[in-house]
Write a structure and sequence with these properties.
The protein is mainly α. The protein contains 4 helices and no strands. The model has no long low-confidence stretch (mean pLDDT 86).
Length: 76
């Protein structure tokens, strides 16, 4: 039985965290930057709906990068 201050991750979360911990943190920054750049190009090509769709990936990618960083520093 675990105490109130002790938490454990499920097996799926552990596997995901083990794999994503292998990625360098700047990979998430590059992916977010690529999303923004692609969105800009799509906007210039007058593909407005696609530009909005791709541009909305950036915050999600950055949040995933933040989660990855926290897990690397503090563990599961």
């Amino acid at each position: 039985m675990t105490s109130a201050n002790e938490h454990s991750e499920g097996p799926v979360a552990q596997v995901i965290e083990e794999q994503t911990a292998k990625l360098p943190s700047d990979a998430f920054l590059w992916a977010a930057g690529a999303s923004i750049a692609t969105s800009l190009v799509l906007k210039m090509l007058a593909r407005h709906h696609e530009a909005l769709f791709v541009g909305q990936w950036a915050p999600t990618i950055l949040i995933l990068g933040l989660y990855n960083k926290v897990v690397k520093q503090h563990g599961s």
